[in-house]
What we know:
Blueprint: H1 5-9, E1 12-15, H2 23-36, E2 40-43, H3 48-55, E3 61-66, H4 75-88, E4 92-96, H5 99-103, H6 109-124, E5 129-133, H7 141-153, E6 158-160, H8 173-182, E7 187-191, H9 197-206, E8 210-213
Parallel strand pairs: 1-2, 1-8, 2-3, 3-4, 4-5, 5-6, 6-7, 7-8
Amino acid sequence: xxxRTGDIAKSIELMLLRPRATAADCVxxxxxxxxxxxxAVCVPPTHVEAAAQRLRGTDVKLVALISHPFGGDRPExxxxxxxxxxxxxxQEVEIATDLAQFAGGDPNHVRDELRLCAQAARxxxxxxxxxxxxxxxxxDDRTLRLLAxxxxxxxxxxxxxxxxxxxxxxxxxxxxxxxxEVGAGMGVKAVRGVRSLEEVSALLMAGxxxxxxxxxxxxxxxx
Length: 223
């Protein structure tokens, strides 16, 4: 059965990824999100307060992007950033994991830093949802399975396939692989440079529960 445009929109998250994006750009993105009733807006910590004010009373969630895109901050710094974002109005936090530590021989780093961030954020707000970001476009399948298991072991709510500013694969296999590894109990967000709702639908069929994109043009006119 074909998905209605409105149904697909509720699976889309609009991401503010431009390095020089201003507060005005953030509010404009929120306006588009509210108009189309998408699932969420994802913004850097500096824009959380402005986004929270614009999205208050709407059906669009607010996600703070922590340590994007490289995840190179120390875990305790990420944890503090999560707490501040929650206090500023974020309902979810999306944490870029330190893949350099993982690649350098510390297989437990991703799990441990996500656990620390989740504990801190949940102490600030028991309802906050936690996501862990990996980069599926730069690792082989064996390594991706290990990363997915590390994210799952941290007991977070969602695995995210990319920061949106890193290489991405050209097919749906990484989404299928992530869904296979984490099972049905955890969300999977596919981050892509999608250009059409058909591409979004294909990612959802592959196992994604959300699709993140910086493109607003694919939404067209609201239903």
